[in-house]
Amino acid sequence: MSNFVSVTRDGGVAVVTIDNPPVNALSFHVREPLMQALVSLRNGPDVAAIVIACAGTFVAGADITEFGKPVRQPDLRAIIAVLETIAKPTVAAIHGTALGGGLELALGCHFRIADSQAKLGLPEVKLGLLPGGGGTVRLPRLVGPLKALGMIVSGTPIGAAEALAAGLIDAVFDGALTAQAVRFASEMAGKGGPFTPVRERDGRLDQAELPAFDRQAAELAQKARGLEAPIACAQSVRNAIALPFEEALAAERELFVKLVAGDQSRAQRHLFFAEREAAKVAGKDIVRRKIARVGVIGAGTMGGGIAMALANGGFSVTVLEATQEALQRGLAMIDKNYAVSVSRGSLSEEVKQQRLALFKGSIDYADLVDCDLIVEAVFEEMAIKKDVFGRLDAVAKPGAILATNTSYLDVNEIAASTSRPQGVVGMHFFSPANIMKLLEIVRAEKTAPDVLATIVELARRIGKVPVVVGVCHGFVGNRMLAARGTDSEALLLEGATPQQIDRVFSDFGWPMGPFQMGDLAGLDIGWRNRKARGETAMIADTLCEQGHFGQKTGRGFYLYENGSRTPAPNPEVEALIRDKAAEKGIARRSIGADEIIERAHYPMINEGAKILEEGIAARASDIDVVWVNGYGFPVGKGGPMFWAGLEGLDKIIGRLDHWHERTGKDVFKPAPLLRQMAETGAWEGVAS
Ligand code: 3H9
Questions:
Q1: Nearest to residue 419, comparing CAs of 442, 449, 395, 451?
Q2: Does pLDDT of 458 surpass 60?
Q3: Active-site residue identified among 32, 84, 124, 321
Q4: Starting from the edge strand earliest in sequence, which strands make up the sheet with 97-99, in order?
Q5: 624 close to ligand 1 (CB < 6 Angstrom)
Q6: For 359-384, b where at least 16 C-beta lie within 10 A, e where not — what string?
Q7: What is the pLDDT of residues 242-299, one digit of tens each?
């Protein structure tokens, strides 16, 4: 008996219960007593069957904090090996989540039964890994190779009903699960066996399926965009079909060991913990405000998306617009967006109707009087925002939280336009707001701690990844984005082309490069911002002056002929770049990928260091969470600050010095914190 694993008896059935909160990870202190319990029950003369159950939730996987440290025996594979030597029926009783090593443990049992709400999956790929406890070789034996491939490469868990239909589990029960498992186990014991372990069930592994399997695996590999884990997952499931069990199992181990020690998995594990860390705000015991009804001001693209995100989290939403016409247009767009989800099969008609029933439209501020939270998403201009907040101040009930969705403006100034700055906070959603995960929560000078804590909790409830940031122009994300783009035009003038720069970005792992991105978002947006700040960008400004705003006008840095969304090189842009370079007397030269990487990415890291210095972000890992979830920074590189550690801080500082000397631009001047961290080795902690 241990604190973490206990054994009780119910007639001839032994129930082994794992209790290692919060998620029953298979830490060493669980594995050791679990192994002892199984060994002793295996030969126990009066034990007819064994149930493995859990307190709280079924096992959610190996203990991720143990990765990268020496493995302490018994490891999970040894435990499963012992399970498979047990001749009596073994039953996993699954409720909550059976994930990763948890599902692998269950696959070591003869039978699996589950609660109807249970979720089962092998999400290791999301940590840059493959299932390393035999999951890739056992799962295909139960559900078939193609289904296993889909589950393992996506990492997405399935529900109990689907698991039953696929053959992963043997029965679904509602109510007292352990009692059902005991009944099930004694029934099986009554049948007398022999009971076949999963490893010996080869019926569903058909060599003839290999060509179809390879086709599907090749498609998945294309989508992996430089990530090693999805490829390794597919290879390992293929081994399950092509190799004898033991050989396939050994090959899986080899791949796991390689991945777990690699930079990509380290990066993805860093992000797993970084996201959870970012969601913790100081003062765990702060009482949150109650949020039931929310208001959203503005039903344009952003306001509509925010309203949908909130309704998807179960909140009643009052959408406010300036005119009936704008309101109807906005509500119709929301309806249409849900209809698209229904047509794609990701939402049922019934759920769509439930969501729509949560919306109420209005053109009268007085209708916001019941709202506990009001999110403003109107035009990005200080005077307009202040006007809106003045009106809100007049109608909102005491204690209501007033949030602005500004992406650049000073939230302190917005808060000061009300009589209750302590109730004002920034909620910077990313477009499309109903899809994108990131939520920058802007803590203004006077934002009350309970307001902040309430919004962080609400963000989690609506499925967002929250990061608390301080007030500055562009907050964490857009401020670093500006730093990333500072030298883009110089690169063009000195010899690079938009397509060359974009290719370097996609080879790095970005979903797209900056010029494709600009064309997609609309070049007029940046143009308007630059004009407001008295800034210029020679090439982009010229395109805008000619009426070329990117995809929406069919022409930008690229050509989009006949409504195509695929960018084609634009010879006129290339000519424009050459002309402007000649005008400025710049001799164009060939520019390599390394130079593009460093002139775009190093200033961004430098800006990140300044953001830390100023306390705009609390931790380097918060910055990584912002960039991975809001801007598509490649997960396999762990975010800009983690990647900086991989790249080497000394190298980065050396190159920043070099470019600072050559260009005189501030973005290249190494931040004191960067130098300090390089000297003290403190960055090692950031990148570990
Ligand atoms: C694996 O199994 C490898 C094997 O194939 C091979 C072995 C040889 N370990 O997410 P939450 C912590 S790889 C350690 O906020 P929720 C988490 O950090 C693993 N810690 O809760 C947090 O700590 P804190 C495959 C873990 O209710 C606390 O638990 N499995 C682990 O929103 C609460 O977490 C996975 O990848 C862990 N495995 O969601 C599943 N899991 O409070 C990973 C969680 O100090 N886990 N913690 O910040 C999850 O997806 C979610 O945690 C889960 C619960 C859905 C289970």
A1: 395
A2: yes
A3: 124
A4: 97-99, 119-121, 158-159
A5: no
A6: bebeeebebbeebbbbbbbbebeeee
A7: 999 999 999 999 999 999 999 999 999 999 999 999 998 877 789 999 999 999 999 9
376 is catalytic: no
**Pocket test residue of 4, 18, 35, 64 for ligand 1, highest count of atoms within 8 A of CB:** 64
Q: At what angle do helices 228-242 and 245-261 cross, to 10 degrees?
A: 170
**pLDDT single digits (tens) 112-124:** 999 999 999 999 9
Q: How far is the CA of 312 from the centre of ligand 1 (A)?
A: 24
How many Cα atoms sit within 13 Å of 359 on the Cβ side? 29
CB 323 within 8 A of CB 363: yes
User: DSSP strand E in 271-400: where?
Assistant: 293-297, 316-320, 359-362, 373-376
Q: Is the CB of 276 under 6 A from ligand 1?
A: yes
Q: Is 535 a catalytic residue?
A: no
Q: Which residue has the higher pLDDT, 488 or 562?
A: 488
Cβ 630 under 6 angstroms from ligand 1: no
Ligand 1 pocket residue status of 676, Cβ below 6 Å: no
**In the chain, what is the straight-line distance between the N-terminal and C-terminal CA atoms, in Å?**
36
Q: Is 252 in the pocket of ligand 1 (CB under 6 A)?
A: no
Tell me the per-residue pLDDT of 2-57, one tens digit each, with 9 for 90 and over: 899 999 999 999 999 999 999 999 999 999 999 999 999 999 989 999 999 999 99
- Residue to probe by mutation, ligand 1, list 18, 23, 67, most atoms within 8 Å of CB: 23
pLDDT at 583: 95
Distance of CA 408 to the CA centre of its chain: 24
Residue 96 CB less than 6 A away from ligand 1: no
203-234 in b/e form (b: 16+ CB < 10 A) is ebbeeebeeebeebbeebeeebeebbbbbbbb
The Cα 504–Cα 507 span in angstroms is 5
* pLDDT score of 504: 98
Closest C-alpha residue for ligand 1 atom 9: 63
